[in-house]
């Protein structure tokens, strides 16, 4: 099958070549290799899908209680009703009286006896042969039938070009050394097996993706990814970047001035991390480092020190954050630290008026702005840096992969790359670090600054709301402040959740002696800033908010947080929100208030969050729940980075793929190119971010 012959609907799914179709593997299977009599089907079909056949003896369209088609078939001994609540004229024609059909589905008791509802139906002759392999069920998009995909895949597997595309070129010595006790099927036989497994195949192993045929495919895919990451790592070391050594000759260096001006000393963990980053900045190839640390561990000051060193050498530094509220927090902090030292700072965000934006862009392009802070507005087309030496990306997983690549292209006309420091309060699980982040050097601030106290987390039913409000009143009476977080701004009939606006009105009425403020995403930037400033100054004692306060809010006197409908939030969100308290000397509490009934997943999530504040434990649970795409920001690129691998289930394969990648890169450069082309094609660039 050639690309031109592929149906348009299949092309839209990217199934435009024999190779693409061969790698479009089934998501599950149906067993159509066994045919039961109707009598046997009536007994066995109550717990699983079964297949039977017969002649249509009745076809009726009924209108009670709604329009539906009921077809009755018989096999000379028993009869079976088939019920269709949605049907087309073509189906009526297929199942006219006298037609012989084969049906598959589960049997259940209906108003008129045993029946199958919406079974799969095929018109066949009474002696039509049964398939000899399990029937694959493929991932499909709207308007694409399983029959069309199966037909296209079957044609693709017969295509002569596929023999070359799936040729066996990994050295057998390497494969045997990695798994000497296992027999690896060849790639072509593995893929053929997955599309057409025999009737006696281990169906569970196929569904779990632990069958040797799946293992071969998973290994190949992981190997391509590991090779790509290791090559990106090597290529980065060949690129040119400005080298920023600590300048001991400058007695009045900005870096020294900043250290002296800070009202605190760096923790041991911060000092260690700063040494690692300082070492990276001294190299003549671009830094690509991820700085991990829990909320409040002091990542921002490390970013400031890195910026100071770069500015000392006559280059610009940029700090980019995903939300305006976080970016603004960075901007205010940098102004506080750098303006007394004479550094020119520019602010750039989407909400600026055209005139302000143009002025900021001119300051950046001319090089007058030494430090630039902003949102994704920093990577828009009309932003050009004079001499960008360092890009700091905060909460890096909130940006798409393309956006993280783009910041490196903002360095003017000089042929050099800027150093890149990414920061995240969401720790990267080990399996993610081994796969997607293999080209990243990772630093971890594993110590909270002195005075930061652990946060006690309590889980409370929504029925105890009045009790919580009463406790809140006595809390505020001590002169402390609090947050009350809600998931929605306006009423949603579908979810029936308390909203920020409603809660604000209720709490204002319930706590008349205290000032209650409201902040949410639809407020204008200046309105938001005014409310936050009033909260910080203790003019507002209770702040009702949506998740706009998830990152970037620092009010030491706010030591209590109530999260309403906590069952609606994910692991990472609650972990981030909870980190807004515990920043002062008072004992801090986070109350997770939930509505019943609670799903098992929500129950487990709340239990975990109550028991641990360890970001790594939470990140692992989050990975198992959401998959890697969301944690990485890869979903925003539109590309599934690993199609066949489950990072937790298949973790043992990652280490094998890493070893194999090292061997191939060292000894088999020709094989490396062929392998990357087969598995990644144009997607390899995303792995460089």
List descriptors.
22 strands, 4 domains, 689 residues, seven-stranded parallel beta sheet, seven-stranded mixed beta sheet, OB fold (Dihydrolipoamide Acetyltransferase, E2P), Rossmann fold, alpha/beta, 26 helices, globular
Question: In brief, what are we looking at here?
Answer:
The chain is α/β, with parallel strands linked by helices and about 700 residues long.
Structural notes for this entry:
- The structure is a single chain.
- This protein has 4 domains: 3-28 and 138-201, no CATH class; 34-130, OB fold (Dihydrolipoamide Acetyltransferase, E2P), CATH 2.40.50; 254-445, Rossmann fold (3-Layer(aba) Sandwich), CATH 3.40.50; 455-612, 3-Layer(aba) Sandwich (Rossmann fold), CATH 3.40.50.
- Residues 1-6 and 629-640 have low confidence and may be disordered.
- 39% of the residues lie in helices and 18% in strands.
- The protein is an alpha/beta fold.
- The protein contains 26 helices and 22 strands.
Low-confidence stretches: 1-6, 629-640
What is the CATH domain class of the largest domain? Alpha Beta
Cα gyration radius (Å): 31 Å
Mean pLDDT: 83
Classification by helices and strands: alpha/beta
According to CATH, the homologous superfamily of the largest domain is P-loop containing nucleotide triphosphate hydrolases
The tally of strands reads 22
Strand order of the largest sheet: 6-7-4-3-2-5-8
What separation lies between the terminal Cα atoms? 35 Å
Family: Belongs to the helicase family. RecG subfamily.
InterPro entries: ATP-dep_DNA_helicase_RecG, DEAD/DEAH_box_helicase_dom, Helicase_ATP-bd, Helicase_C-like, NA-bd_OB-fold, P-loop_NTPase, RecG/Mfd, RecG_dom3_C
GO molecular function: 3'-5' DNA helicase activity; ATP binding; DNA binding; hydrolase activity
Catalytic activity: ATP + H2O = ADP + phosphate + H(+); Couples ATP hydrolysis with the unwinding of duplex DNA by translocating in the 3'-5' direction
């Amino acid at each position: 099958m050639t690309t031109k012959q592929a149906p348009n609907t299949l092309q839209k799914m990217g199934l435009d070549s024999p190779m693409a179709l061969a790698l479009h593997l089934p998501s599950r299977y149906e067993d159509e290799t066994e045919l039961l009599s109707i009598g046997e089907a009536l007994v066995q079909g109550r717990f699983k899908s079964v297949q039977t056949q017969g002649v249509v003896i009745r076809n009726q369209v009924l209108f009670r209680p709604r329009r539906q088609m009921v077809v009755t078939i018989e096999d000379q001994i028993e009869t079976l009703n088939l019920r269709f609540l949605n049907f087309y004229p073509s189906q009526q024609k297929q199942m006219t009286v006298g037609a012989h059909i084969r049906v598959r589905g589960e049997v259940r008791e209906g108003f008129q006896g045993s029946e199958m509802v919406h079974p799969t139906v095929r018109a066949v002759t009474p002696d039509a042969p049964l398939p000899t392999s399990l029937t694959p069920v493929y991932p499909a998009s709207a308007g694409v039938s399983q029959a069309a995909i199966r037909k296209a895949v079957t044609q693709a597997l017969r295509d002569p070009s596929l023999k070359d595309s799936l040729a066996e070129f990994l050295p057998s010595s390497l494969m045997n050394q990695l798994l000497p006790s296992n027999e690896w099927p060849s790639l072509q036989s593995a893929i053929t097996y997955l599309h057409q497994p025999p009737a006696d195949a281990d169906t569970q192993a196929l569904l779990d993706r632990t069958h040797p045929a799946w293992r071969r495919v998973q290994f190949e895919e992981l190997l391509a990814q590991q090779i790509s990451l290791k090559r990106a790592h090597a290529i980065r070391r060949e690129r040119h970047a400005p080298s920023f050594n600590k300048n001991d000759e400058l007695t009045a260096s900005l870096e020294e001035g900043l250290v002296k001006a800070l009202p605190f000393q760096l923790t041991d963990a911060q000092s260690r991390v700063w040494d690692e980053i300082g070492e990276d900045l001294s190299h003549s190839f671009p830094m690509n480092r991820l700085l991990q640390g829990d909320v409040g561990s002091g990542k921002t000051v490390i970013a400031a020190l890195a910026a100071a060193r770069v500015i000392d050498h006559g280059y610009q530094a940029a700090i980019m954050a995903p939300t305006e509220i976080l970016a603004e927090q960075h901007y205010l902090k940098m102004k506080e630290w750098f303006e007394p030292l004479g550094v020119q700072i520019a602010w750039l965000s989407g909400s600026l008026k055209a005139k302000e934006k143009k002025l900021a862009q001119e300051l950046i392009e001319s090089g007058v702005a030494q430090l630039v802070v902003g949102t994704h507005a920093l990577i828009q087309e009309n932003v050009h840096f004079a001499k960008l030496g360092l890009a700091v990306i905060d909460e890096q997983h909130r940006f798409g992969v393309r956006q993280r690549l783009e910041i490196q292209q903002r360095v003017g006309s000089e042929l050099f790359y800027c150093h890149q420091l990414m920061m995240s309060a969401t720790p990267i699980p080990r399996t993610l670090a081994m796969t997607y982040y293999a080209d990243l050097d990772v630093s971890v601030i594993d110590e909270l600054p002195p005075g930061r106290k652990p946060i006690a987390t309590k889980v409370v039913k929504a029925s105890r709301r009045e009790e919580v409000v009463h406790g809140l009143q006595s809390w505020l009476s001590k002169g402390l402040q609090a947050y009350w977080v809600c998931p929605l701004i306006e009423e949603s009939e579908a979810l029936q959740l308390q909203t920020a606006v409603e809660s604000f009105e209720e709490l204002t009425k319930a706590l008349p002696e205290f000032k209650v403020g409201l902040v949410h995403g639809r407020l204008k930037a200046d309105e938001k800033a005014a409310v936050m400033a009033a909260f910080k100054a203790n003019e507002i004692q209770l702040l009702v908010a949506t998740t706009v306060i998830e990152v970037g809010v620092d009010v030491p006197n706010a030591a209590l947080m109530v999260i309403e409908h906590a069952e609606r939030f994910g692991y990472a969100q609650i972990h981030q929100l909870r980190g807004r308290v515990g920043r002062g000397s008072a004992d801090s509490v986070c109350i997770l208030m939930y509505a019943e009934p609670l799903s098992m997943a929500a129950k487990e999530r709340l239990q975990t969050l109550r028991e641990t504040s360890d970001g790594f434990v939470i990140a692992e649970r989050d990975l198992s729940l959401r998959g890697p795409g969301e944690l990485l920001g890869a979903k925003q690129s539109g590309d599934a980075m690993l199609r066949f691998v489950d990072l937790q289930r298949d973790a043992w394969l990652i280490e094998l793929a890493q070893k194999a990648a090292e061997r191939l890169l060292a000894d088999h450069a020709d094989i490396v190119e062929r392998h990357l082309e087969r598995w990644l094609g144009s997607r390899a660039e995303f792995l460089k971010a």
